[in-house]
Amino acid sequence: MVGAVALLAAVFTGTTATGTATAAGNGARIAAVGGWTCPGAAVPPGYVITMFNRSGCNGAGSWLQQPVRDGIWTCSGSPIVSGYVITDYDRNGCSGIGAWFHRLVRNGIWTCPYSPIPAGYRSTTYDARGCSGLGAWLTIRA
User: Fold this and answer.
1) What are phi and psi of 77, to 5 degrees?
2) Tens of pLDDT along 101-117?
3) CA within 20 to 30 Å of 33's CA: 3, 5, 7, 106, which one?
């Protein structure tokens, strides 16, 4: 009960709860940094959302937060960590809400719509077939 109260207080104040609590309804663990979280929980810097469980958090849905790494699929709505770009899209990924593939930026990488273009890079050639038909731009060093 104490863990649940700390988690709720953290959600409403924008801080991080200490310890872990069980997400009501499905037994998912809610971690102080990353792990399974309920709606409204802040995503820590350097983390992304990688999975969605519709029945988690007593039917409100729960999100799995993990540290970002090169070549990770993330759910639609996940933050994009600085230095990373979006290079592919799967409309059925993340339990049907859509998923984006994150890669570290490098010269000659194809990026999807909504991908940030980091400083020192620019977009050039366009391919309408890229990113599962959403279109993609070749990103090169400026």
Assistant:
1) 95, -10
2) 999 999 999 999 999 99
3) 106
